[in-house]
Amino acid sequence: MNKINRRVLIKSLVSGSLGSYLAINSGVLNAFSSTDVSKSIWSKYDSSIVIDGLGGAFSLRQPVTQAALDAFKNSGISALNMTVPYPGDDYAETIKKIEKTKSIIEQNSTSLILIQSASDILKAKLEKKLGIIMGFQSTEMFDKSLSDISEFAKMGVKIMQVSYNGPSILGSGGLVKKDSGITSLGKRAIEVMESEKVLVDLSHSGKRTVSSAIEQAKRPVVISHTGCNAIYEHPRNNDDKELKAAADTGGLVGIYLMPFLEGGEHEIKADMVIKHILHAYKVCGEDHIAIGSDQGVVPVNDGPDYRESIRKEVARRIAAGISAPGETPHRPPFIPELNSERRMELIAYKLSQKGVPDRVVEKIIGKNWLRVFASVWN
Length: 378
What we know:
Shape: globular
CATH topology: TIM Barrel
Mean pLDDT: 89
Structural class: alpha/beta
Low-confidence stretches: 1-18, 20-36
Order of helices and strands: HEHEHEHEHEHEHEHEHEEHHH
Helix content: 25-40%
CATH superfamily: Metal-dependent hydrolases
Number of strands: 10
CATH class: Alpha Beta
CATH architecture: Alpha-Beta Barrel
Number of domains: 1
Strand content: 5-15%
C-alpha cells in the first residue's frame, strides 16, 4: 500500500453531510491513522466491485492533489455517490457545482470517471479509476414545475433525495416534528425521477415520508446512508419496517459510518458498524444491504485542527437548523478503527470474521449497489 507522506490542506464544501464534509475539509491528509491494515486483509477485495453509496472525493474549490488521486486508486473503490450541491444551494448554485464537478473529473480523467450507467462502473473497475456518481441530498434547487429534475438528470445527476433533515417541498426530513408524509408535489417528483431513470433516495426522511414515498414508488428505492433504530434509536436511523419496505421495492439500505450508531460521546468502534450491518442483513436479506459510509475517501487525522473544524462546522449546522442530534465536537464523525482509504476492505474483513460468506460480503461492499443501479438506470 502506498504511503502518503505529506500533509495536504483541503478547504471548502463538497458534501451535504457532516461526515464527508469534515473528512474532506479536515485540513490533513493522513494514511490509515492508527489502523493496522496488515492484520485486516480480505483476499477477494481487489477483485471485487466496491461501491460506496454515499461519500466524498474532492473539493470543488481547489485542484485535486496527486496525494488524493493516489488515495483514490489505493482505496479499491470503483464508484461512489458524491453529493454535488450542499443543502441550501439553489438552482443557479447547483448548476455551477454540477459543471465544476464534471470539469474536475475531466481534468483528472486518468484517475476519475463520471458514472452514467452501471456499465461505467465496470469500466471504472477495469481501468482502476474512481467513478463519481453525482447525487443530491436536498431539494432547494427544484421549483414547483419540477422541470429541473429532468434538466439535472440530463446533466448526469443519477440519485436524488426527497428531503434533508428539515421540511422540503417534497416531504419531511427526520428532524421535522410533524411529518405529514410525501407531499402531492413529492408524489409527482417521484414519478418524474423514475421516468428519468433517477434513483430515489429516502435517506434523512421522516417515517411517514419514507412509508408514503415507498407506496408511491414503482421502481426500486434506497435509503443510501442510515443506521438501525433496533440497535440505537436516533432520528437519522430507520425502523426495521422502513428498512424492509425499501428492500421489498428491490432497492437496498446502506449503513453509514457516522456517530449516530450508538449513544454517548465516546468514539464508536468498528464492531458497532458491523452490528448495524448484520442487523440490516437479517431484516432485509443478503441482496438488499450495502454501505453508504458518509465519509470522504481520504482518511483524516483527528488532531487539534480537525477538532476545531468539527466545532465550527457543528456550530454552523446548528445555526442553519440542519444539524442532527448527536453531532458533537466530543465525538469525531467517523470510526477511528476504519480511518483508512481501504475502509471498505476492513469492513469486508470484519464481516468475514463474523462468518458472513464471501459471496455475501461481495454483495454488501458493492454488488448490491451495482444491481440496483442497473435496474433503475438501465
